[in-house]
Automatic annotation (TrEMBL):
Organism: Lachnospira eligens
PROSITE patterns: GNAT (PS51186)
InterPro entries membership: Acyl_CoA_acyltransferase, GNAT_dom
Protein's name in the database: N-acetyltransferase
Stretches assigned to the N-acetyltransferase domain: 1-136
Amino acid sequence: MKIREVNENKKQFISLLLLADEQENMIDRYLEKGTMYALEDGNVKAECVVTDEGNEILEIKNIAVDPENQGKGYGKALIDFLASKYADEYSILQVGTGDSPLTVPFYEKCGFVRSHNIPNFFTDNYDHPIYECGVQLIDMVYLQRCL
């Protein structure tokens, strides 16, 4: 398994990016300013994009694992890589996600704790309702992990 930084043609991973953020113009808001990593194990299995949010906070804007490879530890490997790589530069790794029974428990298992919410984020910023595990996503839930 190898994790490499992607510096050009980040849109080549659009199918993975859209798994985590299903509206392309929302991805466009952070893709170029963010740092992207691809996890390869034979071929690309997962990706993530992080941004510097100031105040020693690094934010995961997008993290996705190819559906055929979910549950195999690739997402956790990316998070552990970020925590290790950025521990000397940042004090907090945070992620914003929908209040979903799929994603919140994953982040909690990776050492994140709930921090705060942004009410109506998904209904205010997306042009269509977003559902995960049959639940409509409305508020953005922020989780943080100390580095």
